[in-house]
Write a structure and sequence with these properties.
Blueprint lengths: L15 H12 L14 E5 L4 E4 L15 H15 L7 E5 L5 H14 L4 E6 L7 H9 L4 E6 L10 H9 L10 E7 L7 H10 L3 H4 L1 H8 L3 E5 L4 H15 L5 H15 L4 H14 L6
Parallel strand pairs: 1-4, 3-6, 3-7, 4-5, 5-6
Antiparallel strand pairs: 1-2
Helix pairs in contact: 2-3, 9-10, 9-11
């Protein structure tokens, strides 16, 4: 005759509010652990899970090789020095022509200021991670170091709400932007949104002035506007000659001129990026490593 198994005591059911709280806790991203800021001068911000990932080697161009942008270079360099010293400094928007050294200038200025003995970190933030910017600011707010937040190729479409998150860096809300954080952004657009979109919203809105004010005024929150414009042929050739001298690539002026002009003609444009692409090809043909 089979014996009956003893009944297990019933587990008390959890309160519905307790279960909901536990579910929300599982869904929320865990707070990011503070990294070892001394391990690197540059970091990448990744959201969900939140992480500041050190970058041991940053792709950079020496500041002295950036030709034709002297005013922007000097302005951004002085602003960055002020910030690194703990003095007042402005957020900066670098806007204008493609391939004219906007992102290269930000990285070159950073390493220049670090080489002068200042403790300054740079954190790159992708546009799609802007909604998490508040959590990043909370992490950096308690750090002792100074930080440049760098957002490359920033722009917004008409239905893009990411720009609202950016205001946390530019304005800071009630709590204010941390004193040890500054934002440098690059964009092909001065107002961070296409001109045809601005005109369309103005023409179709009941109040045209208010229709685009929120988005257009975003760029006004940058204290520095640094414009980058297409280079002329002499500047283009000077860029290439500078690269050749810096990396020990020997080529006579006539050959360089002929090849570089032909290269730009095949690309249909002339810029710092095109100059570097030609130089990369030239160095490869001459068997010279750029590492």
């Amino acid at each position: 005759m089979a014996t009956a198994l003893p009944k297990m005591p019933a587990m008390p059911s959890k309160d519905p509010l307790e279960r909901i709280a536990e579910a929300l806790e599982r869904m929320a991203p865990a707070p990011a652990a503070a990294p070892d800021y001394a391990s690197a001068d540059a970091f990448l911000w990744h959201a969900e899970p939140d992480e500041l990932r050190p970058v041991p080697r940053v792709s950079r161009v020496d500041l002295g090789l950036l030709v034709g942008i002297d005013r922007s270079r000097n302005t951004l360099l002085e602003n960055t020095r002020q910030f690194a010293k703990g003095l007042p400094a402005n957020n900066a928007l670098l806007w204008g022509s493609r391939g004219m050294g906007k992102s290269s200038l930000v990285k070159a200025v950073h390493v220049t200021v670090v080489s002068e003995g200042h403790t300054l970190k740079i954190v790159e933030v992708q546009r799609e991670d802007l909604p998490s910017i508040g959590r990043l600011l909370d992490l950096l707010r308690v750090a002792q170091e100074q930080f440049i937040l760098f957002c490359d190729d920033l722009s917004f479409s008409h239905d893009d709400q990411h720009y609202k998150s950016l205001k946390a860096v530019l304005d800071g809300g009630i709590e204010g932007r941390p004193d040890n954080v500054i934002l440098y952004a690059t964009s092909n657009r001065r107002h961070l949104m296409p001109r045809d979109m601005i005109e369309n919203e103005r023409s179709t809105a009941i109040n045209p002035a208010e229709a685009v004010e929120e988005k257009v005024s975003l760029s006004d929150r940058f204290g520095l506007w640094l414009g980058f414009h297409p280079c002329d042929q002499d500047e283009y050739l000077a860029m290439i000659r500078g690269y050749c001298d810096a990396h020990g690539v020997e080529i006579d002026d006539d050959t360089l001129r002929a090849e570089a002009i032909e290269w730009q003609a095949t690309r249909g444009s002339r810029s710092g990026r095109v100059a570097w692409q030609y130089f990369t090809d030239l160095a490869g043909r001459r068997g010279i490593s750029l590492r």
